[in-house]
Design a protein that fits this description.
Helices cover about 70% and strands about 0% of the residues. It is mainly alpha-helical.
């Protein structure tokens, strides 16, 4: 009945950054590589927004904007699923 919702996924941080023209796909790929290496070396996670900010590609306001967009997507989907008592 609501199959279109199961296909809709929350966009990832990098997808939103590229879509807004704030970073290139190459920038995101490099940041993901750095993120993976950081996790292997430090046994902890570093957010991609922090990496891109440290590289001078994003501002803290850019990061907030992207995170708000992700939050809005998640909230909308969670509300809809809860309203109709659907499981993901």
């Amino acid at each position: 009945m609501f199959g279109f919702l199961k296909r809709k996924k929350v966009k990832r941080f990098g997808e939103i950054a590229v879509g807004k023209g704030l970073a290139s796909e190459k920038d995101i790929a490099e940041a993901l590589k750095i993120q993976k290496e950081y996790a292997e070396k430090h046994a902890t996670h570093k957010e991609i927004g922090a990496i891109l900010t440290e590289k001078g590609l994003l501002t803290p306001d850019d990061v907030r904007t992207i995170l708000e967009e992700q939050k809005d997507q998640k909230s909308t989907m969670a509300w809809f699923f809860a309203l109709f008592n659907l499981s993901r």
